Amino acid sequence: MANTLGGLSLAAIAQETLLTLQAQLPMLKAFTTDFSGEVATPMSSISTRVASSAAASDASSGYTASDVTSTAKTITLDNHVHVTHKFSDAEISDNGFNLLKRTFIDPAAYGVVNKMVDDLLALVTSSNFAGGSVIADSAFAANNTVDLAKELTNDNCPRQDRVLMLGPSYYAALAKDDAIQASYAWGSDSVIRDNDIKTVHGMEVIEYGDIPANSEDLEGFAAHKSALLIGARVPDAPSDFAGSIENVTDPDSGFTLQLREWYEAKDGARYLTATAMYGVAVGNAAALHRVTSS
Asked: What pTM was computed for the model?
């Protein structure tokens, strides 16, 4: 006989999961995203376009048109990932909703989003993005952000939607810089109060602890959001699925995480799964400048 969840529904889990998604997904705004509620199957694809950089010309002789170029980009939905937890009848009877909330909701949502970002950052290599600077973590300072911003400007990247993503040691070095520590002079004490650098020289600064080295000593990067592309769709649900399915959508990004729940009589256990289908791709190769330690 199936166990009783004590009033807990999958819809209730979905609402709890939304809180975690809203805490984790703001990082994705640093990249070009294509999220939709459309249903998709593995290995399907999304087509999008990336506009080339544009340079201004002197207007004294009139408005001569220049060519515009957009490059078609295909994002293949070849990543179908999940986090699944199994709860026995005894565990649910003893712990009920609290066990599910502590064990499933936060780790599952975070695990899926973290895997998406990891796969995206795996594309940040010298073969995909030629621009790079070697800077030791102990030497990283506000002046380096000026140079990185200059590199993006030299590559005709728009000044808006720029991000500087750094690993913990580089972020800490930047936060210790006297120019950053004295940020109260320009109206914010967030560095001292919250260890939140916010924006420096036109780039939103993001600390991320899982930046992959990619066998190139990668420690971070400065980029315009057109440099990296990520797209996701809702996994197709089986028509004969013997359980419940709820889709929870982050209202800001549009990303949808699918939750599934079912009971296995032979195991005497209830299964809860968070799953997503997505793909990643390189966008504008001139819009990202890598920071490496060697």
From this structure: 0.78
